[in-house]
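[Q] Does anyone have a clean structure-token version of this?
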Amino acid sequence: MKKVTTSLLLASLLLFVAPARASAWHEYGHILVGQIAYLRLTPAAKARVDQLLVTPPNGRPLIHLCAGYYTAQTCEKVYDPVTIGIWMDDFRGDSLTDEYDPWHYTNYRPFFDGVPARPNVGPEPINVLSQINWCINTLRASRSRPQTDAARRERLDAETLKREKSYAEILGFLYHLVGDVHQPLHTATRYSAKNPNGDSGGNGFALSLPNEPRVRNLHFFWDAAAGRFAYEAPRRPLDEAGRARIRSLADEFMKAYPPDAAAKEIEPLVWVQESNTLAREFAFVKVKEGEAPSAEYTAEAQKISGQRIALAGYRLAEVLNTIFVEERKPTP
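[A] Here you go.
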């Protein structure tokens, strides 16, 4: 297991990163995962998430980021329990953070389409599944440590503050990676005559959408939930209207895809297997390379995307509810 401090060299690096590259679900999707999860947290889990991700009045956030492309009056980006899922994409795109790139995906059960299977092709040792498990295990271990009231954060000793920051960042990783793994093309790569070395989860699978020139490949199409959000991103930082829009979308998704038995599945390997099956049986094979997806394909892809985003939110909440439980006081 990695030490908690391994990932937290970021604290001194985040001021220098470049704009993020395209990534799973884009901003709307990751924010919706966070919103749906937040609505389903138990009081104990919500309290701990708030401790780590809600900035106290007149206090400093445990996670923040400065990037030149941000359009707020200051360059500082801050995150909360709804927007934290975007953080891991915001710091992508610079050589200082290259080590995190493999965290976003896994080449689980590669898809050989019309070409012989290659025996030594598969997931990298560090991948989205390994890192989700690392995040969960590390946060479980954190339960044995004293928890800190967010209002007292500014008065913490340096060591405790550093530890709280590390747990906040691990929580931020978990939010993002749970979203990523529910996007089918983050769990499979297609090998074909045109792409004998793989298409990097559909990044090498060209598409042509005359009315949407930004969509050049299948991976981007699925990251954008097949255009379910009109290929747009919410204006950040979220204002009151923006938060109302996110809440309305979350309510819409939860109504369309209500929680069922699958929503309580908290084994990350199952999430990977589901996404991989969707990639192999639908995403890669029901669309022609170099063309525009059909209306039928687009409608089904939007439906699948909505289901996967809702499931990611439900399951993230289930995981956090099992990690952050109310501590029972010993019987006198």
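[Q] Thanks! Anything notable?
[A] The two ends are 37 Å apart (CA to CA).
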